Amino acid sequence: MKCPICKHGNTRAGDASITLERGHATVMFKHVPAEVCENCGEAYHDAKVTRALLEQADQAARGGVEIDVRRYATA
User: Fold this and answer.
1) Which phi and psi (to 5°) does residue 73 adopt?
2) Hey, what CATH topology would domain 11-71 get?
3) What is the dihedral of CA 12, 16, 19, 20, to 10 degrees?
4) Quick one: which H or E segment has residue 46?
5) Measured between alpha carbons, how far is residue 16 from residues 24, 29, 38, 62, 63 in Å?
6) Distance between CA 56 and CA 24 in Å, rounded?
7) pLDDT tens by residue, 11-48
8) Which of 15, 19, 24, 43 has a CA 20 to 30 Å removed from the CA of 33?
């Protein structure tokens, strides 16, 4: 797809690092599947990946995590 941010590049399957904050918790996910713009690097995730990221970040916050770096895992 044409990137809606830069309007110049096309996206290709790849992976990205995503950082989410929940309350006092900061969770970074590495190797998250994404469509990545070849021009600007903007990453786009489908609904399934987004739901999994949000659920894992919420679980980490409920578990008392303050800072965590983890490899993305499908829920």
Assistant:
1) -130, 135
2) Ubiquitin-like (UB roll) (3.10.20)
3) 50
4) none
5) 23, 8, 12, 25, 25
6) 15
7) 999 999 999 998 889 999 999 999 999 999 999 999 99
8) 24
Torsions phi, psi for 53 (to 5 deg): -60, -50
End-to-end CA distance of the chain: 26
Question: Tens of pLDDT along 48-67?
Answer: 999 999 999 999 999 999 99
**Residues 6 or more apart from 63 whose CB is under 8 A from it?**
none
d(CA 33, CA 17): 9
Q: Which amino acid is at 16?
A: A
